[in-house]
Each structure stands twice: as structure tokens, then as C-alpha cells.
Design brief:
The protein is 30% helix and 29% strand. It is an alpha+beta fold and 247 residues long.
Length: 247
């Protein structure tokens, strides 16, 4: 039993109880500080993303390598032509409560860089899943404008959802650029270009900036963890203390 007195109040606690209290308090405070750190990271990330959105368009024909995370949401331009024979439907895409697909078309830049999947937007499912929408596109040389982004990710990843079918256009639920590159027979970039809303030959486009948890939520979570640590401390003091008798 550990005993000590502060301001006329005697505290008594067993060593296991004290160790448990210190361990739990340390964990709760660590979680609180971790949430504060994550909130600061999100602030920096949002500032970087906003800076990328408002930056001048980058000419991809002049770039040998792309850091997709550093350049995420950066406006880009690229000259080349679409590979009209090989197009991709991303299945199970909802827009305003309606089922449909996202249409991704490989774009081959002039200059020999890896192909880039251009997300041309959302199309409705139609009357039957057996009949795919008509997504024909011009194969002539053209300049595409859009922004860099990661590939769409579903909320639930099913096994085999990234494996393309045998016949073009293929349907997938997850984009795996390596698998698609093997099927296409040429290299693919590990990012997509979301086609600008002003560009022709696209469909419904509502591009957004994805932030899973905003900085304010991280702050709220931190307050909760620190609050639990404070509550635990108050409970420990109440249980282990008693007034020292005066004599």
C-alpha cells in the first residue's frame, strides 16, 4: 500500500491500482496529443491542396516524373491522343442517388511518356447492366486539360474487384494501374487526370477535394481524450483519498 498526504488529505492506493491509473492516463493523453498532431497535419495538407488547386497548369509533356501526392489536385495539360480501343468502366458509382459508372480512357502523351488514365466523368447505368453505355471518343491528336488525383477508392474492397475482364471496354471496381498496364501492353501512370468541366467529350463531372476527417474533428477528438484523462484522474483521487484526522 502506498500512502502520502497533501494539504491534509491522505492518499492510499495499491501499487497495481496506481500503475493502472498511470498507464491509462498516459495512453489517454498520448491519444489526445496524437489527435492534435493529426489536426496540424491536416491543416498543412489542406493548405498544400489549396495551393495546388490555384497553381498554374503543369505541362505533363515536359515532365519525366510525377510525385502524385505533392501534385495532387494540380491543374495539368497534356498533348497526345486517346486509346479509343481500350476503355474502362468503374462500376458501382452513385451520383445523386442513381447508379452508374465512371469512364476512364487511356491517354497516350506525345513524347513517349507512360499512358495516363483520363477520368471523363460519370454516366448512368441505363436500362440493363448487360448493355454498356456508348462512350465512343475521338482518337485525333488533342490537348487535354484537367487535374491530377488518386484513383477512386470504394468504401468496401471486394476480392478480385481490381481484375479487368477479357473484353473491352472492361468493368472493374478498383483501379490497379499495374494490372491494367499488363493488359494494355504499355506503361501507365499511377494517377488519373480528372477531365476539366470545360473540356469536350466528357460526362457529368463533380470533382471534389477529399478530406476524410477535417482538422476541427481531430481537435474535438483530442478534447475528448483529454477529458477522459481528467475524469479518470478525478475518479482516482476520489477513491484513494480521505481526510487525515486532526489530533
Amino acid at each position: 500500500m502506498i500512502k502520502f498526504s497533501i494539504f491534509g488529505t491522505e492518499f492510499r492506493s495499491s501499487l497495481p491500482a496506481l500503475a493502472t491509473y498511470l498507464l491509462l492516463t498516459g495512453v489517454l493523453c498520448s491519444l489526445g496529443f496524437w489527435q492534435l498532431s493529426r489536426g496540424e497535419q491536416k491543416k498543412i495538407l489542406l493548405a498544400q491542396q489549396q495551393q495546388a488547386v490555384s497553381a498554374a497548369a503543369l505541362d505533363l509533356n515536359r515532365q519525366s516524373e510525377i510525385d502524385k501526392e505533392a501534385l495532387r489536385y494540380r491543374p495539368v495539360l497534356v498533348t497526345g491522343h486517346y486509346d479509343t480501343s481500350h476503355q474502362i468502366f468503374i462500376d458501382n458509382q452513385m451520383l445523386e442517388g442513381k447508379p452508374g459508372y465512371l469512364v476512364l480512357t487511356p491517354f497516350l502523351p506525345d513524347g513517349g511518356q507512360p499512358g495516363i488514365l483520363v477520368n471523363r466523368g460519370w454516366v448512368a447505368l441505363g436500362a440493363s447492366r448487360e448493355v454498356l453505355p456508348d462512350i465512343a471518343i475521338n482518337s485525333a491528336i488533342q490537348r487535354v486539360q484537367g487535374r491530377i488525383n488518386n484513383f477512386p477508392e470504394p468504401g468496401l474492397k471486394l476480392k478480385g474487384a481490381e481484375i479487368p475482364g477479357e473484353r473491352w471496354p472492361v468493368r472493374v471496381q478498383i483501379i490497379d494501374s499495374k494490372l491494367l498496364a499488363d493488359k494494355l501492353g504499355y506503361a501507365l501512370a499511377n494517377y488519373q487526370i480528372e477531365l476539366d468541366s470545360t473540356q469536350p467529350e466528357g460526362y457529368q463531372r463533380q470533382w471534389k477535394i477529399a478530406v476524410a476527417i477535417p482538422p476541427e474533428k481531430h481537435l474535438a477528438y483530442a478534447v475528448q481524450w483529454f477529458g477522459l484523462a481528467l475524469t479518470l484522474t478525478a475518479l482516482f483521487i476520489w477513491i484513494s483519498s480521505r481526510k487525515t484526522p486532526r489530533g
